[in-house]
Amino acid sequence: MRSFPWAGGGVLAVASLLSFAPLPSYAEVGSETPTAATDVIQDGYSPELGAQVRAYLLANPGVILEVFKLLERQEAENKAGRSRDLLARHHADLFDGAGASIADGVMGNPDGVVKVVEFFDYQCGYCKASAAELKTAMDGRTDVAVILKEFPILGPASETASRLALAIKAEHGEAAYVGFHNALLAHRGNLNDETMTLLVEAAGYDYAALTARGRASDITDKLAANRKLAADLGISGSPAFVFRDELVGGMMNADRLSVAFNRLAL
């Protein structure tokens, strides 16, 4: 049976009508003091009206489901509205990198009109799967910019990987960063120092130098800023995709991404 945890008040009200019993106020719950008027269901409602409503609902139980569906739709609309307001307040941090110590990496066309932010962790299996879906959705498009928010939440190896990636970006540029980013996500299995050393050296870089660069304050500040932004947005896992009007927690397949891209391209 489908439950509506947010509609607890509605459930209590319906139950009160069906049982033809008064519904106590919040302050009276658990109190031994009787209500001021025990012969009414609520102010302005007589026992006769309550009996009529009870009889109607028993004869037409589908009405209760209609009410719950309406409440569910209203709650979804309210939640979407709150999410849009939240994204609007953080628009600059998400899409413009306002005040960033080091800029986020970008895949695709940095000047693309369609912008999406991805929060990711290099050890996250769903992030690895999402990389292929993103590639498919972006294939043949020149209007998409994917802003990459390093969000290491799965332990020290994730932190090391993000620091190495940002160090490569700082020292060797955007293309080098995106290449290393893709190599990390393409790796199957857990990351460790040996694996990351091999990946760095395969890309032609000095692991020790990049490790030292990765400890610099600008990179530390960048990771802290990304974590704070995620917390402000209510993001606690990866991946998470943020569009100008929507936040999607969890993996998105290529079809869903393409629908979002097309909507934003209008």
Structural summary, described in words:
Helix content is 56%, strand content 10%. The protein is α+β, with helices and mostly antiparallel strands and 266 residues long. It has two domains: 5-79; 92-265, Glutaredoxin, CATH 3.40.30.10. It has a five-stranded mixed β-sheet. Helix 1 packs across helix 2, helix 5 (125-138) packs across helix 11 (254-265) and helix 6 (156-172) packs antiparallel against helix 7 (174-186).
The total number of structural domains is 2
Mean pLDDT: 85
Task: Write the element-wise H/E pattern from the N-terminal end onward.
Answer: HHHHEEHEHHHHHEEH
Most strands sheet: 5 strands, mixed
Key traits:
56% helix, disordered N terminus, Thioredoxin-like_sf, alpha+beta, oxidoreductase activity, 266 residues, Glutaredoxin, five-stranded mixed sheet
Give the arrangement of secondary structure elements.
Layout: H1 8-19, H2 47-59, H3 62-89, H4 91-96, E1 105-108, E2 114-120, H5 125-138, E3 144-150, H6 156-172, H7 174-186, H8 193-202, H9 207-214, H10 217-233, E4 240-243, E5 246-249, H11 254-265
Helix pairs in contact: 1-2, 5-11, 6-7, 6-9
